[in-house]
Amino acid sequence: MTVLRRPLSRAARKEERTAWVFLLPWFVGMAGITLGPMIASLYFSMTDYNLLSPPEWVGFENYGKMLDDPRLRQSLTVTFVYVALSVPLLLAVALALAMVLNRGIKGLAFYRSVYYLPSLLGASVAVGILWRQVFGTDGLVNKFLGLFGVHGPGWISNPDTALYSLIVLHVWTFGSSMVIFLAGLRQIPEQYYEAAALDGAGRRHQFRHVTLPLLTPIIFFNLVLQIISSFQSFTQAFVVSGGTGGPSDSTLFYSLYLYDEGFGRLHMGYASAMAWLLVLIVGFLTAINFYFSKRWVFYGDGK
Q1: What is the arithmetic mean of pLDDT over 272-276?
Q2: What is the SS3 assignment for the chain?
């Protein structure tokens, strides 16, 4: 059976053209800023290219080189430890503060803005420099510990503690996740808590059996965003370590090593291959999160 499409009226055609005009900048940006560079990067990843001479095709040689690169393995180890520790801690702090703000304290807008501010500043060069001073040998942290007779190490200059100081910095940028959690908490109907209270459930049981299940979509959303963001962390490690990833490569984030290979050593072909490895890693972890989300994320529609 043939279905005849009703011709659009003049007003509808004009509205459709207007929509395409407004969408045109997005399509141009997608082609010129996203798809174009991605295709170029994929090509360069299969070449020997140093920015100063024409690229020379080498096939999958750059990808094979990564298997024998000890610094790449170190950067992956550092990055995975950083993500595995900082993301859960950040989400826990963000949720805890969102729970506190959700109680309806006075000046909520002010506190929400203050807590959100670190999310805007945490990745800045200025905060990186400040963090290096705070956790330095004579920094504020050691001066505070000195009040109790404790002689703290140089947190940034010690390979055993340098990464953890960056983890603390990342956790400090909890503001955006906190605001999203707060919005999710405001959407939970109050009658659920009233019904749980009538059944004798205390605050702990209400949090476990009411708040957490209904907040799982927000937790999942924040989890995916924070994992992707954490794998792209660069500025903090660059500033704190002076661009070296030191001491002893203890803060050598994957993105920092990629930058060093591409713009420090001009191994642009190898850096492009590293970039595509990062895409695969982040894509794989995101797919894993979506797969397992079926087991713990509750959307309220029986799915």
Answers
A1: 96
A2: CCCCCCCCCHHHHHHHHHHHHHHHHHHHHHHHHHHHHHHHHHHHCCEECCCCCCCEECCCHHHHHHCCCHHHHHHHHHHHHHHHHHHHHHHHHHHHHHHHHCCCCCCHHHHHHHHHHHHHHCCCHHHHHHHHHHCCCCCHHHHHHHCCCCCCCCCCCCCCCHHHHHHHHHHHCCHHHHHHHHHHHHCCCHHHHHHHHHCCCCHHHHHHHHHHHHHHHHHHHHHHHHHHHHHCCCHHHHHHHCCCCCCCCCCCCHHHHHHHHHHHCCCHHHHHHHHHHHHHHHHHHHHHHHHHHHHHCCCCCCC
C-alpha separations of 36 from 40, 47, 57 in Å = 6, 17, 19
Return the residue matching tokens 């030191």.
246
* Contacts of 44 by beta carbon, 8 Å cutoff, 6+ apart: 55, 268, 269, 272
Among the residue ranges 43-52, 196-205, 249-258, the one predicted with the least confidence is 196-205
pLDDT for residue 80: 97
Residue 265: exposure state from Cβ atoms within 10 A (0-12, 13-18, ≥19): exposed
C-alpha distances out from residue 267 to 52, 128, 180, Å: 11, 27, 40
- Between helices 70-101 and 108-121, what is the axis angle to 10°? 170
CA-closest candidate to residue 224, choices 214, 235, 213, 216: 216
Does the pLDDT value for residue 301 go beyond 90?
no
Directed axis angle between helix 70-101 and helix 162-172, to 10°?
40
Q: Is the pTM of this model over 0.85?
A: yes
pLDDT score at 8 = 63
